[in-house]
Amino acid sequence: MHSAGTPPAGQAGDGGYGERAETYLRLLAETALRAAADGNTNRVRDAAEILVDAGVLSGQAAAQIMNDLQLALRLRGKRDALAAGALLRRLTAFRPGYPSREAGGQPNSWRVLPLGPPPATGSRLMALIRTADRALAPAVLHFSPIALLDTETAPLTTLTATDDAGTGYRLGFPGGTWAGSTWTGTMALYPAPPATATRLEISGPNGPVLRAGLTAAQPAAAPPALVAGPATESPGERLLTRRAEGMLAALARVAPGGHGARPPDTDELTATLEAAGALSPLSAAPRRLAALGQLLGLPVEGPASEVPARWTAVVAHYGRRRRPAPVSGTGAIGAVLPVLDGARFAVAGVHSGVPGSFLYVVAEGLRPLPRRLALDPAGRSRESPASIDTGFSWWVRDDAGGWHLCVLEDINPVGREGVLTMALLPPLGHPTTELTLEVSGPAQQVTATLPVRW
Amino acid sequence: MNWFDSLPAADTQVPCGSGTHTVRWEAGKLTLPSHPDAEAELVLGALGGDKPECVTVAEVWARHAADLVVLGMGPRCAADPVTVSWDEVAQQRGSLSGLTQAAPMPPGSGAPGPGAQRARRLAIARSFGAVAPAGSGARVSGLGSGPAAALARGMAEGTQRAQQRIELFQLLALGSALQFRLSGTVCAAWAEPDRAGERAALRPQFAAALSGRFAPAAQEWLGIDPDAVSVTPHEGPGWGTMRVSGSGGNRGLRASLPLGWLASVWACGLAVVGGHLVVAVEEPGFPEARVLALPAPDAAPVALTVRAVPDDSAAVPAWELCSERD
Hints:
The complex is a heterodimer of chains A (about 450) and B (about 325). Chain A is of the alpha+beta class. Chain A has helices at about 15-35, 40-55, 60-75, 85-90, 235-255, 265-275, 285-295, 310-320, and strands spanning about 110-115, 125, 130, 135-140, 160-165, 170-180, 180-190, 200-205, 205-215, 225-230, 330-335, 345-355, 355-365, 395, 405-415, 415-425, 435-440, 445-450. Chain B has a domain at about 5-180. Chain B has ten helices and eleven strands. In chain B, the strands form three sheets. In chain B, strands 7-8-9-10-11 form a five-stranded antiparallel β-sheet. Chain B has a three-stranded antiparallel β-sheet with strand order 1-2-3, with helices on one face. A three-stranded mixed β-sheet of chain B has the order 4-6-5. At the A-B interface, α1 and α3 of A face α3, α6 and α9 of B.
């Protein structure tokens, strides 16, 4: 309730966007309190959500302003239909521009344990990523069809993990999918294997399922090239770009000829972002969004401009009647990205097949999931998370120059971390030897060139 | 010269013990005429004795004398009534007591001492299994880990928020006259010259506090739509700036005013006097004060002497022009 307890967003080195956004929202709240106002706070709430979405206002500050407004209305005999709590559930601790930290301390370091050469066939790890108290390993496990005949016992529950020194590890399987006798998903090892371990073996009752060498990276393997810096777009432009990416993702989810994308309310978005100082009136972003809408045949009005080439590549792929089949295979990557707007990511690898191409990413510090996408007791989302906007844009470029939009396909929480499965749109058409990754947050972005070992 | 010199004393009634007592605001201070030795009663309260409600109110007032939440909740103008009854305060207390049945709040205590607060927190924690029951002989588990402890911490924070809300309700229940005076007190505390750095970090809140209160005054002054009025906090010498843009339905007013305007002008009912917008008080006083005021947005300020119109029922005095010096 005490407003002074919220650090002003402008202190986060955000170019003053935070202060302007907070001022705008507070002034809007004042208008809702005027005698002539009817106590309807929809406009304030919509603006709060847009500004939080754009990353120019923390969810905490927005929720506090809304909470105070509700109480002030109540003290004036006006009650808003929507309880502040409904908003509080959505606007929680997402704080763009603030590094991810343990309470009162420095962030725990993440480390990729280098893997030896992958086996020619069979089961394999994409990467082994060591976090605070565990190691997470997206993997593909091939089981003997005979082992799966025993329907009494779930095959994953029979697995054990040991290293070359004979040390055993508790295994967890926070998420994965079966395709015949092949399982693709994430393994969690407790505790994380030490740096001295040179081999990891996953075994079942019928013998080893996976053997992975934990050796130094091959000398020939180039280290990932990382370039991190402030976002080139303003927070308002970032939000409009993410809305465009949402339209592209929707396009990919529908059958050819169908319409999955819906036009966002660009006018309201643009007006709020401009008024809050998060979008320049001269920005081309609204025109780009309008142009994409027109390209998709949506009823979008307003002046349009050129559509970025990478957007066109996605539209062109999904506009085909016959689409090329995705490449089949698993590529190991293993790279930890710098902290971006308070979130941490480690790219484990890519797995591709008939259903599509998927990037596996360990993440921490993302904003909370919307309530409608709450997880069930098994830790899986009840609805497809493909429409979740994580607040970040992910694009990869393959070694042939083809752009792919990464869209959240699944989330498997493991403690405070989570493993994101991100669908590449369009899927990979060949086993690319490297991926150039671009991740953009509200205020920061990183570009990384990552070697892929198939 | 003090900002509050342009305000007369104001009384309000507070339920205290078996009756009601007068609590008086006078010359910037809250006084308790029914408790001539309030200090002794405070000591007795701290030692575990019953604390009279009047004394509690005085403590709460002092605790919130620089609390910006007061500006968020308090009145924006005389036509913006903020009504809280003492029944509502009791109801809020009842809810809190229900939450913390194991350690009920002493009757009439709006602000329990640290010992009582700790006892209440422990009681909440026990109810969620984070702490072994008193006298059970069981080892006390730590409050810093585990889901039960997290839940207990959440409950304790919720209790603290509820306690703050009760205190706010107590202050607002003192009525309109004291609400304006408390708002003035908060603004004056933040307007101190040595707090410029702190003000800079809270500019959005001060911009909202100024705009919310200046806009109705501008509407009275110019007939302008209050939604077309915005104010930024002014720092540095001078009274600030005032600029009208557009015309007709597109007319807007942008002003910059120091935070102290809210204390010395707005809280004293001086914002608009005789068709002038008062931008500063040269010599505060009651029933007569000398002010600097704008006859029009683009005009230079003129010095005026203003006089309060007798009206005991008004929350803040209404003023009329006495003379214009030049």
